Amino acid sequence: MFMSKLATLVCLLLLGEWGIGLPTGSVALAQTWQTPFERSQGQASATYAEAIAYYQRLAEAYPEVHIEEAGPTDIGRPLHAVVVSDGTSSNPADLRRAGNRILLILNGIHPGEPCGIDASMMLARDLVQQAELQPLLQRLAVVIVPVYNIGGALNRGDWARTNQVGPVAYGFRGNARNLDLNRDFIKADSRNARSFARLFHRWQPDLFIDTHTTNGADYPAVLTYIYTHPDKLPPALATYQQERLIPHMSAHMAEAGIPISPYVNVFGRTPDDGGMAAFLDLPRYASGYAALFQTLSVITEAHMLKPFSERVEATYHFLLGVAQHMNANHEALAAAIAAGKAEVRATERFAIHWETDRERVDSLLFHGYEGRYRPSAVTGQPRLYYDHSAPYQRNIPYYPYLKETTHSTRPVAYLIPQAYPELVERLQANAIQLRRLSQDTVLTVEVSYIDAWESRSRPYEGHFFHDKVTVRRDTQAIACYQGDWVAYTDQSGVAFLMHVLEPEAADSYFRWNFFDGILMRKEYYSAYVFEDEAAEMLAEDPVLRAAFAAEKARDSAFAASPWRQLTYLYEHSRHSEPTYTRYPVYRWWGSTALPLE
User: Fold this and answer.
1) Do residues 395 and 425 both lie within one domain?
2) Which of 238, 500, 531, 548 satisfies CB 3.0 to 4.6 Å to 230 for a cystine?
3) DSSP 326
């Protein structure tokens, strides 16, 4: 078992040792480079200003450390990236040419969950100060985002995380616009997300870690984890993750004496009440977003009820274990990623929506505490508590599989009207290659009509998100104009394109309300005028007359509603506007060359 080391930090420093596997050496050097977390004996987390200042000091003292600004954020402060490498270069292209693998660590997306902020500061220091760790940088560059949600980090206090033990002060989940940035990677409403996208594509990381602290059940594990679901990865990467990365990390954390578990995502009130399911990390989340570009991704979730010192320790060891794995397996990892990218680029049929497969169940040996009930002192009703005097190890149902609910076949290209610059900006931030039409032209394209959707009754992250989207396809000749955009799908970002431009995809731009203008008619009819034309239509068109009669026979409410009947005929008349519910991004299947700039 691992020890609670921070309580004895001062004594250990006198021996020139650090309690969480941190650097050995002189007491003076150790004290010089103590982080705010260490100086507080594991009670405090670094502020945003302290974290940036610490990295700047490291960069001034060690050529292996470089800190740069990576773009603006909503609070007006720059997003920083810290590069820890062998010191020969801080340029991603140079480092890749030299055979380095790239590890990207994102901290403080929820600044109330700051374990990664403090763990990464110590990791960066140790990589350049500890002789036994310096060889890791021979085949590895570590890129650290010290604090992603800077606005939330500056909104600091001790009140927001109701269920969390320590630290003494921390940031807030919402950013400067009160957005949860871990729902913003696709819609990219924040400047943070758009800056991160450019940073991500500049570095093209091989592996990505997003650090968090849990909410939810109580159990012995200090840290839980979410790897990208293998059903959402190309085969080469899924195999590498399941057969190499996960076994290594399980062994590494066991050797460190730190209890871990798959993320506790329960069906009932407790883990053994109905079992657990693997978390579905949709592209709105950091890890789901990264997976669209064939980057292996993992979310760490340190347990909220464990002491802050233990949570930081566990996060530190996880980050270190991933770095060690990447260095030791740099050739195999590079080969798996290259194969995965090739597999995706050759894919024609893409799954774009999934759900947990409740028909396929495994068994998971789970270490838990018995969930019991006693009368509430507040309500008088039974309340749940976890009995720490009754730990258990029990096989519980575990649902690790997904089933595809929607798929789409990729077209040759998507045609995007220039009327949607906010969409184009997001595509360009994600390194999508776009061309423009050089002249007005009429093209035969596949169009999609939004046949059904349900908008949420309350806003979700600033949007009235659309659920239960269904489409129908049609082939039409559409006028396209000089300056309209063309996105060919034969490019490395094809999975991203499919997931944002196919309206039925789980996190499509349509679902996030980028195209709500098409969901409202711009012209309509006056019933007392249209009645006569509707009667003429029925008299002159036997096919329409038969369909109209069949609809009345099928639906009694329709038969009883003059408005619904007239609307039905209006929608089948020459007056019905073709742009109503017509999705304005067109699928092009042509084999001839388009007129391009």
Assistant:
1) no
2) 238
3) H
- Answer whether 123's CB lies under 8 Å from 316's CB: yes
The answer to whether residues 284 and 184 belong to one domain is yes
Cβ pair 183, 461 in contact under 8 A = yes
CA 180 to chain centre: 11
What is the tally of structural domains in the chain?
4
What pLDDT, on a 0 to 100 scale, did the predictor assign at position 26? 60
Closest by CA position to 411, among listed 594, 582, 589, 586: 589
The token pair that represents 474 in the structure block: 């049609």
Q: Is the pLDDT of residue 14 over 50?
A: no
The answer to the question of residue 587 being in a domain is no
Residue 456 lies in a domain: yes
Q: Which residues contact 352 (CB under 8 A, 6 or more apart)?
A: 406, 407, 408, 498, 499, 502, 504, 505, 506, 508
Residue type (1 letter), 173: R
Q: Identify the helix (H) or strand (E) that includes residue 569.
A: helix 562-571
- Give a yes or no: residue 246 inside a domain: yes
pLDDT of residue 149: 98
Angular region, 294: left φ>0, alpha ψ -120 to 50, beta rest: left
DSSP 472-513: EEEEEEEEE-TT-EEEESSSTTHHHHHHHHSTTSTT-TTTTT
Please report, for the domain that includes residue 213, its CATH number: 3.40.630.10
In angstroms, rounded to a whole number, what is the distance separating the alpha carbons of residues 34 and 27? 10
What ranges make up the beta strands (E) of 311-429?
349-356, 362-375, 382-399, 402-409, 413-416
The tens digit of pLDDT for each residue in 23-45 reads: 445 667 778 999 999 999 999 99
The pLDDT score that the predictor gives to residue 244 is 98
Residue 234 preceded by cis peptide, ω within 30: no
Q: Which domain holds residue 531?
A: 527-571
Using alpha carbons only, what angle is made at residue 72 by residues 66 and 76, rounded to the nearest 5 degrees? 115
Which residues in 479-518 are b (16+ Cβ under 10 Å) and which e?
ebeeebbbbbbeebbbbbbbbbbbbbbbbbbbbbbbbeeb
Could you tell me if 412 and 472 lie in one domain? yes
Residue carrying the six token digits 């042509």: 590
Name the band, by pLDDT with cuts 50, 70 and 90, for residue 584. very high
CA distance linking residue 175 with residue 192, whole number of Å: 9
Query: 267 and 211 in one domain?
Result: yes
- Both 302 and 196 in a single domain? yes
Determine the average pLDDT of the residues in 431-439. 98
Residue 284 lies in a domain: yes
Whether the pLDDT of residue 22 is over 60: the answer is no
In the structure, how many helices (H) and strands (E) does the chain have?
A: 19, 19
Give residue-wise pLDDT tens across range 190-226. 999 999 999 999 999 999 999 999 999 999 999 999 9
Say if residue 448 is in the same domain as residue 532: no
Q: 57: which residues sit within 8 A by CB, 6+ positions away?
A: none
* Cα-only R_g, the chain: 28
Same domain for 339 and 366, yes or no, is no
Asked whether residue 377 falls in the same domain as residue 466, the answer is: no
**Which run of H or of E encompasses 529?**
helix 527-540
